Amino acid sequence: VDTDPLFDEVSFGPFSLTDPGAPQPGPTLLTMLAWVAIALTCGVFFGGTLVGVTTGVAMAVALSSNAGRWAVRLASLGLYGAAAGFLVLKQALRGPAIDFEWVKNFEVTHSWAIAATFLLLVSVAADVIVDRPNSSNEPQTSTPNTPGGSTQN
Fold first, then answer.
1. DSSP character at residue 22
2. Residue 76 neighbours by CB distance under 10 Å
3. Nearest CA among 120, 119, 121 for reference residue 57
4. Distance of CA 68 to the CA centre of its chain
5. Which segments of 1-153 does DSSP mark as H helices, in order?
6. Beta-bridge partners for 142
């Protein structure tokens, strides 16, 4: 009897785990370090040192597990919410600023929004990196030189 792979899951939801005995594909350590370095470099270049370090750590966490990817997504939402809440609270307490000092007064919020955007990008990139097919683990099902891709037995 064929079973549906969906029912092989231990639980449902963002923290669901597949069969604990099954091998868990994922990026190699070298791949993981390369992507962490790329995320760190892009974060430093576009957002500064703190955003870069946050982005690099988030990439390492996101590539480590499914729960890590969800934690990065939730952190992104939290940073967006904190940035918006800080803007609203500061304007409610001091009134809206109508001058050129506005940018300086809300610079920290700008960094939070940039970090949140980078965390969102890290989440998407980690999904692609972890879920991409690995040619060494999957059997070849078609011959590349055969028109129409006929299957092999």
1. S
2. 20
3. 119
4. 8
5. 29-47, 49-64, 66-94, 102-105, 107-131
6. 151
